Amino acid sequence: MPVFLDSTSATFEAEFAALLGAKREDCPDVDAVVSEIIADVRAMGDAALIELTARFDRLALSPATLAFSQDEIDRECARVPTAERAALERAAERIRAYHVRQMPEDVQWTDPEGATLGWRWTPVSAAGLYVPGGLASYPSSVLMNAIPAQVAGVERLVICAPTPDGKSNPLVLLAARLSGVDTVYRIGGAQAIAAMAYGTQTIRPVDKITGPGNAYVAAAKRRVFGKVGIDMIAGPSEILVIADRDNDPDWLALDLLSQAEHDESAQSILITDDAAFGRAVAAAVDRRLETLERRTIAGASWRDYGAVITVRDLTEAAELSNRVAPEHLELCVADADALAARITHAGAIFLGPWTPEAIGDYIGGPNHVLPTARSARFSSGLSVLDFMKRTTVARMTPEALKAIGPAAETLAISESLEAHGLSVRARLDRLNEESA
Amino acid sequence: MPVFLDSTSATFEAEFAALLGAKREDCPDVDAVVSEIIADVRAMGDAALIELTARFDRLALSPATLAFSQDEIDRECARVPTAERAALERAAERIRAYHVRQMPEDVQWTDPEGATLGWRWTPVSAAGLYVPGGLASYPSSVLMNAIPAQVAGVERLVICAPTPDGKSNPLVLLAARLSGVDTVYRIGGAQAIAAMAYGTQTIRPVDKITGPGNAYVAAAKRRVFGKVGIDMIAGPSEILVIADRDNDPDWLALDLLSQAEHDESAQSILITDDAAFGRAVAAAVDRRLETLERRTIAGASWRDYGAVITVRDLTEAAELSNRVAPEHLELCVADADALAARITHAGAIFLGPWTPEAIGDYIGGPNHVLPTARSARFSSGLSVLDFMKRTTVARMTPEALKAIGPAAETLAISESLEAHGLSVRARLDRLNEESA
């Protein structure tokens, strides 16, 4: 049973705080193991990758077979059925069309003092994308990570995707091809992150690493952060649905379950201004759980972390949602735009009953790599900007330096940074000499 | 003596690689200590802060004196001399004018299928700025961190600044006041980071923490990353100057020294196409080092990490600079704009001989919090965007869902995510019934 909360109850605040604070992830402390793996890869390079892959993935590799060959990729792609290929191509096209609009523009202006100021955007040179193996090997995630990098203009784009027992996912390879990935390596875990960050004899280091992974991958990303850029440390998926009574309970039940089926630690929350409607949705979830393929996972998630919250009105719903800062937020209410205007923290908003969250996972266009675990309070989903960086630009004229240089000198002296001050003073002195 | 390299030498590639790989920072492994401090603050709150501040800063605090009172701030601000106040106000105004231009716009469009897509930007609710104590307590850094947050629209902005032995810097407090900071706490170190991330009885938690600090602060920021957002792990400062012979060697010497004086681990590099000019700059550095106040620090930095590199031409200079990915890059050449167009990785570019880097530290307008240690390959200086986040928005019409829903269903099934597929299918079935 999920929890049922009522915002008018005297115990509500405590119950809601408990829901917010629920620790949904067992973070095993794998840091020591990961630190050793990274040191191994830095010291031994390919040999470490080969040994670790044999141990963890039961797969014998050599430096020559670390990467899929183009022939292998061709063969794998050819195995993808036509309908899946068409769907993947359609998704790639729509994701690209959305992300192209994120391309930032360079800006430059001259201010009243005569200083020319601005900034320029450039892509990172090389990016590495981690794709988990096994059940969570999602071709859609390849598109969502690789296409923003491709749009940004990243020159070299590689994937590390473990193939436990040699099993690969043809759709992952096709998605890689559709999104301009140059090379796909058959390695996973912390060793893959280390290889992309530091390089080996065969694998050239990249500048930015993105993509989800297990606790080992997450710990490795945290460790290499600074040596390379990383996206975020992703936690289990979440959905919050705000709905009034004029909705089909079964639709919303499926939307809640579409997060719950990801992971036993996923969280699905319904907030409604109608208690009876809330019970109807919970009943619909129970009915769907009888037959759903992943009912064990989804059922555990709904039982342990699911919640149905009844509120006085939709304004209160928005306030509670902002405290959750959900990864995915569906607004199934009469005036979804008005409610959206009250939302200050959310990874992605889905407006109206015809926009199930699953559309955003695959084909809507926006990225499905989104901030989890309340991090929408301070971070954004993946975008083209994650694969670019901004260089600021400044040019002083002699007149501009005359106008603002003395203040810089004053501040430098106040901070006891004499050379800073002198670098301005030497130039100002020249100007004074010239005008004398 | 700095190293003198010549790109035409047979040993150049190895020497340049050694320069790039030089480990300039002793990163003491303080992680265990930091982990304990964070645990203490989470368990004991204010009591831990008071105990740690007594131990490390030799300062007795109580919950009531953790923060400066408004009266105390008034008194401290009144101690700032007029010239410093005016310079700080001028700097704040120019930094604000630059950062206001970074405010992003919300975007929304409707695509040919009828899907409405876009994104919205919102500020983080609360941000915490760390300001180191002692020598590196820079009022300019307060402006550079706080003003972008203020421009972004952050509601609550706090500072943690240790005051060892009770000594505070009036300019830091004035800078805080000029940039809209609400509260300044007299605490530092890992305990300050923990307090801002997790909160205590007195200190409310924030969503984003920025600002430089020592190894303990850096380790704490890395640890709390995910619970809150952080800016970056800053390393020692760097400057790279590309100059032709038509420059005053003394000016460039001062520019090189203005980074070297920050820290014995700072790095200053000159790249020139004229070997004699390079030697002249090195000689000018030596002359200035005779009298510079911080000659011990600057001299050690220049001796241990300084470099003068002679290249065949300016194109080669740009290529080498891109491999360094310097924090600060001065282009003192006849056509600085043309050379800038070849730069792909740099934190900030200063164009022409009238733009000493120190202008950017204080008053130019661009941010002086910039990526160090080659991280300009993948990251940017601090900006308004660091205090905002983007929420993606999608709305499907029934027609749009009809057009793209089936592809989403196909992909969901291929990923064995049945509820995802059903959430789309249930709606498509309704549309088919209606049109039947």
UniProtKB/TrEMBL annotation, chains A, B:
Where is Zn(2+) annotated to bind? 259, 262, 361, 420
UniProtKB keywords: Amino-acid biosynthesis, Histidine biosynthesis, Metal-binding, NAD, Oxidoreductase, Zinc
Q: Where, in this chain's numbering, is NAD(+) bound?
A: 130, 191, 214
Q: CDD domains annotated for this entry?
A: Histidinol_dh
Per the record, the domain of life is Bacteria
Cofactors needed by this protein, per the record, are: Zn(2+)
Q: What is this protein called?
A: Histidinol dehydrogenase
- Source organism per UniProt: Rhodovulum euryhalinum
UniProt lineage: Bacteria, Pseudomonadati, Pseudomonadota, Alphaproteobacteria, Rhodobacterales
Q: Which gene encodes it?
A: hisD
